[in-house]
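Q: Got a minute? One more chain.
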Amino acid sequence: MPQSIEPLTVSITPAAPGSLSDLGFSRDDVIGVAITFAFGGALSWLCAQHPTTLPIWAPWEFSWPEYLAAVLGAWWFLRGVARSTSGERPSIWRQISFMLGVVAIYAVVQTRFDYVAQHEFFVNRIQHIFMHHVGPFLIALAWPGGALMRGMPPLMRRFIELPLLRQMISAVQQPVLAGVLFVGLIYLFLIPEVHFQAMIDARLYAIMNWSMIGDGILFWCLVLDPRPSPPARVSFATRLVLPFAVMFPQIALGARIAFGPGGIYPYYEFCGRLFPSISAASDQHIGGIVIWIPAGMMSAAGFMTVLNALRRYEDTLSFDEPEEHDDAKRIVLDSSAWTGRR
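A: Always. Here it is, folded:
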């Protein structure tokens, strides 16, 4: 049945004044953060001093924000799962989905894959598919908010619950703006002049990658919310429309690049290609197909996931109490018309 968010109840034992708990950190928090920073420091030093001796899964250019986001996010989620009651605990499939999503993003930004993506356009497009579609989709599919909140230090929870931050997220997740941002960022960073600058400027490159990841997570969390509205931000009907609304502009862009004349992205000639057997035109055409087909497949997967959430909700819906949810007040969709269920 659809997942619901129960009131978050995390008991914190009062501590003596001047203790770590006064700052919002328990002893376990401090130990975990210390281990995380120690391992990250060692990895950063190895990447800087001995890059040729590291395996392909090691970072090409170590990034503290990307490393901490992945490691702390996974740690807080697993600790939140351990702290959850049997009714709160995410299913094993949701746990696997979250971890796969984190690994998918980490694998394309903090391994040698990132180096290859900086030297071949089609690999760069694969990288963005994982950052903007596959990884965020898997994270949103896990619906990890409750577990993450239970696993976070109290200080971080208070930051997440700031009204201003929640208002900003709510504004970005307005359906029209969410769809425009989701497609618009792809278009923006594929403008040849913008793409060239983003690839040669480390700061712009980081902004490009972080915007892809952050926007992807926000968009897919909006679409894949398994709950009825409210408490979900939008209705099931809107969630079914959004994946298709963003699919066709991506298909058009991918087709334009795939069938357009070669040489649109001169950066990859400038920096040197890793695969000389793949010409500039072929590299661009393959990249266009990567934008075109996987994006369409992810939108179809999103549509089917929302349709399944609607089906499961209808299975539990009590028509004797239609006032509970907006989706129960009005018959917007009937999944039996799509699935053959009666």
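A: The chain is about 70% helix and 0% strand.
Q: Perfect, thanks.
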